[in-house]
Write a structure and sequence with these properties.
alpha/beta, TIM Barrel, binds sodium ion, binds manganese (II) ion, Diguanylate cyclase/phosphodiesterase, nine-stranded mixed sheet, binds guanosine-5'-monophosphate, 42% helix
């Protein structure tokens, strides 16, 4: 596993699946969106993306995996829209290879337009590691191109890169996803609490939405709500689940 050949085989044998984790309103726990996460089927086992992350450093594997995920996600969203589910948005994760490939906005637009899914339902999650230092102009242009087509951009794992705040000066983003490491220590570390409170304030003043990630306890949810966060994501609300389970969640029947 984690080997390029394993991911290649999974792609060829149609063993890549899209799982989804809900993003909820902290006050009502209503689902407002989803994050799509790729999984590999291996016999009866479902393997998480963390375990084949190494292979996605290969440009061809990363590109093929993104293409497959986009096709799966776009088809799922079309089904949910056809079912009349008041579905707001889905986040897709993209890799450094995708961002540097030069045509990411076209690839995404083509995938969703093929399923007649309007692009304003799409959020592109760009991980901080993709930025490397201060403002890669290629990444910046890629983000601008996505937004020009009506997609929204989220900075994923926000706070883990040493230039996090600098990005807010140079890159036009719609959403920041506060990294789980800050949420883990929210209730026990004054520094974590201060940083998270500060990020929520900064985001509000910049008209950027925040999604704290990795919420596992009611105490964390309460602290985040008190700090002014409207939304949240984490195991407290739901783990990532397959398409059928996601449909049940969206219909309120889970
Ligand atoms: O879902 P999981 O905990 O396995 O995710 C592990 C890591 O893999 C996370 O950093 C997540 O962002 C990344 N990841 C999950 N799904 C995808 C995907 O479809 N594409 C890319 N590029 N990364 C993904
Ligand atoms: O890097 P990225 O933020 O895309 O990673 C998302 C991954 O984090 C998902 O694969 C998901 O499995 C994992 N995750 C989401 N919520 C929680 C949580 O509450 N606790 C833990 N341990 N992992 C989570
Ligand atoms: Mn993500
Ligand atoms: Na994250």
């Amino acid at each position: 596993l984690g080997d390029i050949r394993d991911v290649d085989a999974a792609l060829r044998e149609d063993r890549i699946e899209a799982y989804y984790q809900p993003i909820v309103r902290l006050d009502t726990r209503e689902i407002v969106g989803l994050e799509a996460l790729c999984r590999m089927r291996l016999g009866d086992e479902i393997v998480s993306a963390a375990r084949f992350h190494e292979a996605t450093k290969d440009v061809h594997v990363a590109t093929a995996l993104t293409a497959r995920m986009l096709a799966l996600v776009a088809a799922d969203v079309r089904r949910w829209l056809e079912m009349g589910i008041p579905f707001q948005h889905v986040g897709v994760n993209v890799s450094s290879a995708d961002m540097h490939g030069g045509a990411l906005d076209r690839v995404l637009a083509a995938a969703f337009e093929r399923e007649q899914v309007p692009l304003d339902h799409v959020i592109v999650e760009v991980t901080e590691a993709v930025y490397m230092g201060d403002g890669d102009p290629i990444v910046q242009r890629a983000i601008e191109a996505l937004r020009a087509r009506g997609m929204r951009v989220a900075l994923d794992d926000f706070g883990t890169g040493f230039a996090s705040l600098t990005h807010l000066l140079t890159v036009p983003v719609d959403i920041i996803k506060i990294d789980k490491s800050f949420i883990d220590r929210l209730a026990t570390s004054n520094a974590s609490k201060a940083i998270v409170d500060g990020l929520i304030q900064i985001a509000r003043k910049l008209d950027i939405k925040v999604v704290p990630e990795g919420i596992e306890t009611e105490e964390q949810a309460r602290l985040l709500q008190a700090a002014g966060s409207v939304l949240g994501q984490g195991y407290l609300f739901s783990k990532p689940v397959d398409r059928q389970a996601t449909t049940a969640l969206l219909l309120g029947r889970a």
